Protein: PAS modulated sigma54 specific transcriptional regulator, Fis family
Amino acid sequence: MKQKKQSLGWVSEYSEWLAQFDSATLLSKMLDLCESSAIYIVDKNQQVLYWGDGMEKLTGLRQENTVGKPCLAEFTLAEADDNQEQSIKLSQANGDKITLKKVSQILFDRLGAFAGGIAVLTEALAPATFVPKVLATAKQNFHGILSRSPTMHDVFQIIQNAAETEATVLVRGESGSGKELVAKAIHTLSARRNAPFLAINCAALSSNLLESELFGHVRGAFTGAIKDHSGLFQRANGGTLFLDEVAEMPMELQAKLLRVLQERNYIPVGGNRTIEVDVRIVAATHRSLREEVKNGQFREDLMYRLRVVPIFLPPLRERREDISLLIWHFISQHNDQRVRIIEKIDPQAMRLLLDYAWPGNVRELHNVVEYAFAVGRGSTLRLSELPPEFREPRIVGIQKQSAKRNPALDTEDEAAAIRQALEQNHGRAGLAANVLGMSRATFWRKRKALGL
Ligand SMILES: Nc1ncnc2c1ncn2[C@@H]1O[C@H](COP(=O)(O)OP(=O)(O)OP(=O)(O)O)[C@@H](O)[C@H]1O
Structure:
């Protein structure tokens, strides 16, 4: 605090200017100015001398019941509190507990003895206290893969079991559905966890570049190859290599990949010496490799080598119970940056989010949350803060149809979501309704209909 005063120019002109006024006038002017802030003053005996309007509002305790009386234990000030920030918990008249931040300045008399102090209270901005959210429980967070869908829980089990073996894994799922997260989880859970995890997207590079990236090249292998370059296989030695979009790999490279999987060695581009490697492959694709084989685009022998353990990741629209979980997860991450704190989602906006088909899956959902943080302000995520495609009824309608909703599944999902929201908000229906973006009335009606 003292440092700040200096850097703001705590200059002699200012001291001279202050010296013109008596301290009582100054203090009362300052307090008038801050009337709406939660400020209070206690004397050395902890008796309340001043209790601002803001204190009444924040704590529900009236001036007539506080001023001239000893303060409650939470509000006492001691020498050690000087310039300190503390967190205090307070029960409100309605029984709700709130957490407040208390910052105080202690005053000393002319002889240097403790003479009481001034404190300011503000609502603590800790999202954990203020944001009612459906946050993932430990069971719903599998190495950063969040889900409460039973299908995904089966996937978690397969990952866990497969990780303990050396088997090659093929993950199939739409773009943005979390295939790379699965590959990372397998690596982290395997005996290879302390060796590198490297990833490459086979669709992103030309055939020559991909070959050189994967297998490396020797100096002079082609124009521009001015020195030896070690490939990903060599750099991932002892670890795991994630081959994303493996179905896009050109045929000639498929043969080379098959050889590494079978022989555990390869020859770098332009080289004549085989290099031995010990790398576990986790591959991923959004296509059916079987179809690609049928179409003559993918080697059948390689397909069998890759899909020793096939894992299918369902798209987000088929695990709708994850939508609100993931929305609140990403909101909570952004809240931590303190630029904006979202505590609620407008019910209409939530309805659209739940009904959307999410062609870009979790990545798209994250982008939507990011968009809302970029374009909006305030504690409620509003309809107007969703990207334009959500506000065009025609498009959302089409997506709704293409999502082919199963009404029975919806009911189950809804019941599970309501149960969880109630559980996590300790049975407080108002907060649980907020979390799910429903009005209290709708929430009540749905609970009744679902027998909850
Ligand atoms: N279940 C999940 N829980 C939390 N975050 C997730 C989940 N699924 C995906 N994500 C996040 O979504 C983004 C996309 O995930 P990821 O890159 O793993 O998808 P992908 O299927 O490999 O996509 P692509 O095929 O387009 O490369 C990442 O930021 C990832 O952290």
